[in-house]
Amino acid sequence: MKKTLLLLVALLLGVNLWAQKFAFVDSDYILKKIPSYKAAQEQLDKLSEQYQKEIEEKYAEIDKMYKDYQAEKVLLTEEMKKKREDEIIMKERQTKELQMKYFGREGMLFKKREELVKPIQDQVFNAVKEIAVEGGYAVIFDSAASPNMLYTNPRHDKSEEVLQKLGYK
Predict the structure, then answer these.
(1) Beta strands of the chain (E only): which ranges?
(2) Of 107, 109, 92, the residue nearest 55 (C-alpha)
(3) CA 30, CA 162: separation in Å to the nearest integer?
(4) N or C: which terminus of the chain carries fewer CB neighbours within 10 A?
């Protein structure tokens, strides 16, 4: 009796797993088709370039200060040397702090990306979720984010459905 019950449970689990539906989307493809995402990316790229240029200018200033110091070092007193070294170190520390303020984990660029891109990503996620519920899919993979997908049958690609659900073609 136990063997029969165990066999029945195993059979039901196997059928249940076999009956699961899977699909995939390509989030990169979807996002590239959304004009507001492109605009957000362009805005972020410009902001990043602006921040990077400012940081590079600061490092060029530090480099000039250091070269000037090296050239004048022999003429300076120990007190003057110490003062100039401290100025260079302080300027470098300030530049690194500015770099973290712009590009760090909680930096301005990260916050701007969250502000501009996250709402679009949330819309895409919600559309994928709706398609999964409507189609009865157990799992929808992202082929753009998963390098482990060795083969995907194009008929299971739901990227176009996501775009249609979002109102894009």
Answers:
(1) 21-25, 137-142
(2) 92
(3) 8
(4) N
- 116-121 contacts: CB < 8 A, separation 24 or more? 116/40, 116/43, 116/44, 117/37, 117/40, 117/41, 117/44, 120/31, 120/34, 120/36, 120/37, 120/40, 121/31
Buried b (16+ CB within 10 A) or exposed e, 35-58: eebeebbeebeebeeebeeebeeb
What is the spatial distance between Cα 33 and Cα 129, in angstroms, rounded to a whole number?
19
Instruction: Render each residue's pLDDT in the chain as its tens digit; 169 residues.
Output: 444 444 444 444 444 445 568 888 888 999 999 999 999 999 999 999 999 999 999 999 999 999 999 999 999 999 999 999 999 999 999 999 999 999 998 999 999 999 999 999 999 989 988 888 888 888 888 888 766 554 566 777 788 888 888 888 7
Contact 165, 34 (CB under 8 A): no
Question: Tokens in use for 15?
Answer: 């059928």
CA distance 64 to 132: 59
Give the C-alpha separation, 36 to 43, whole Å: 10
